[in-house]
Amino acid sequence: MTAVPLAASDLQIAAGRRRRERAVAFFFATAAVLSIAISVAIILSLLGNALTFFLNVDKSSLWTDGWFPRRGLFDIKTIVAGTLVISAVAMLVATPLGLGAGIYLSEYASPRIRRALKPIIEILASIPSVVLGFFALTWISPNVIQPLTDAPLSNMATAGIAVGVLITPLIASVSEDAMHAVPSYLREASYGLGARRRTTTLSVVVPAAVSGIVAALIIGVSRAIGETMIVAIAAGGTGGSLFEINPLEPGQTMTAAMTALAIGSDRVRGAEYTFESLFFVGFLLFVVTLTLNLMSDAFVRRVRRAY
Amino acid sequence: MATRAEALRPAEIVEQRLRGAGTSDWRSRIVEAALLLSLMISLGVLLVLLADIIITSFPVFASRPAEFLFSPLSARPATAGILQGLVGSLLLILFVVLLALPLGVGAAVYLEEYAHDSGLTRLIRTNIRNLAGVPAIVYGLLGLAVFVTLLGMGKILIAGGLTLAIVVLPIVVITASEALRAVPNSIREAAFGVGATRWETVRSHVLPYAAPGIFTGTILALARAFGETAPLLMVGAIAGTFSNTDPAEMLAGSYTALPTIVFDWSGKPQDEFRALTAAAIVVLLAVIMLVNAIAITLRNRYDRRW
Fold first, then answer.
1. Of A219, A251, A286, B126, most Cβ neighbours within 10 A?
2. CA-to-CA distance for A219 and B173, rounded, in angstroms?
């Protein structure tokens, strides 16, 4: 047998194989770049209409007594106040519940209990917000809010509590991840000094994970501000609202105002710039949530750099 | 007695302290109870919600379960059903599967398997994380401006399906990336070592191992899309009654989805609609929980430690 010398061409990739390789790589790269195209499209579509609104609308209508688009009253402070009130109530509910659940799951629960409880938290997280909106209106308000106060059925406190329930699992899982990332030698050092589990948890683990916990709270606020359906169903702002900061009164948020505009309950033939006002509010919402998300991202990265 | 106690040897004192004698630790117990309570309240809310909705929906499922599922929408509570919602939601999910799944996994494969750590890659990663945090209603505005208005589609199901696919795309990319990252490099090196090209390595080695993770993430994203309401309202899913029940007609015409029906009915003043809304929610939650259960089972079964 004579040995056939190996030529360089034998080691080269076949033309068809190379072509397929390029085509596949091109598809993957296109898919990845698409995400940038989506961001650009979001910004352009929001900015275009928002500018049209801002340049043409009577500026005095942006600072009046209430948000009534059909009467040409676009009071920004009404919907910003509504959003802040509901987010504040939501954080009052979700901060203790979410952090408590996160700390318990990370530091106290045995592996078996963790495995049993985490899927339940995930189920709670998967409940659509439209369902929580209905629950808020038909159960939370008549059973929790109304027996204690003389609030009407639709009010901001009810919506805020439901939004709090919605973001609790999010805060729990992000803060649990942060505490889970704290290396065990810190805990062991603390136990070695004779500290109890309570002391170790509250004085060692929580301070070490504080960046991640702050990130969890910021992302919770961001989600609360962007939450739409609960507020549209249970906060009682359909058709517009006067400026209101009492949580026990009905109010209007940025997102609920957008929903009302989109389904047309606020639109009247001849009312000017209602379509564009939708994008103006959307742009405000986008800027606020983006800022909060970037902040939260920075905190998460600080945890990762630390350990 | 007092003198006797003072005369304890140091070793005895240490032993007492280690046993925790005399230092009743009620503070620790309160802290643990408070932490457990916060977890239990969350779970309690879940149970109350499920119980309340199932009980409220009972009249509908007791009297006309099949009619409710397969009757078209109606303003009269006695005959109203959710047929169009089921058809609409299924068609919308089809769009998400056909668009968000290949594009999302494709982007993840590019980022994890192909891309070098360049400025562009970092930009794409940061961008995808931020897209995942953009409120869903903002995606609705994107759909309204681009699909409905700019491309002149009007308020049709195709516009809704495209919008929904974009809403869940970042979630698919993020979960698929995590699944790919969990595949150890030795698997890739084995394929490269026998002369496989990058795509051959990805197709025959990386994707099969990452598949359970990708699949779990994707079906959770589908569950999310199934319950998403706000963006659909922006791009014109009908919150009201219409007669059209044919899937083909719905694609290019008036349409609705299960969660949009829940939103519409929850605002109706008649008492009968309360039971109908709860019944529609039962159907919605049943699908979502079934999908979640499948995802969790898959993850537990194929959870691989390298």
1. A251
2. 19
